[in-house]
Amino acid sequence: MDQKPFESVRDLMTSLAAYLPTLLAGLLVVLLGLIAAWIASRVLVRVLVFMRLDRVLARLHWTSALQSGDARHSLFEFFGTVLGIFVFLIFLANALVIWGLTVLSGLFTRFLLLIPEFITAGLILLVGWSLASLASRAIQRVLFREQFSRARLVATLVRWAVLVTAFAIALVELNIAVTIVTGAFLIAFGSLALCVVLAVGLGSKRGVELLWDEHFRRAREPDGRGRAVD
Fold first, then answer.
1. Each residue of 199-230: b (16+ CB within 10 Å) or e?
2. Where in the chain does DSSP place strands (E)?
3. Which of 70, 99, 115, 223 is the one with CA 20 to 30 A from 182?
């Protein structure tokens, strides 16, 4: 009875000594992850600076947000930090496997698998926002040139349509309410198509006829070189 506490301490020390190499191996993986994350972050920042990403963003009319060099550098640093964190988390997940923390490692792996989906959804929203701005400006410019009275309204509607579509695609990418989003879009597009058919076929029949007559009249008129346009 008196020797059991000493035997327990001896067993504890033996277990710690046996687990020490595993602990050191996991810590080594974590250290390598920190180094790899720092290298990946620095490399990405250098690549973005070399590729002149600010020029690409300027084409998307982000020039006002990136007027100063500090803003551009902060944006590049943000991208590098995100990549560094992702790389470190991969190494940390492997360290958890080495330490034998299987349950925690499984949860962590599932979390890691969600990160690319969130990044993809963010990129979809970013591209959608850029396309919405470009499409809105282009349509408004064309309608102003044609002296259309509701140019701003149409451009705004197109902008919001693109934004809603991008948001719905992001939700589908995240597997959030996929059935509801898909059904809502099918209903919306079907309703829009029906409205267009009814508007053109019934309400605007005479207007459409006049537009086509004007188009064919201009097509039959001779051009500047004295011959009819095909």
1. eeeeeeeeeeeeeeeeeeeeeeeeeeeeeeee
2. none
3. 115
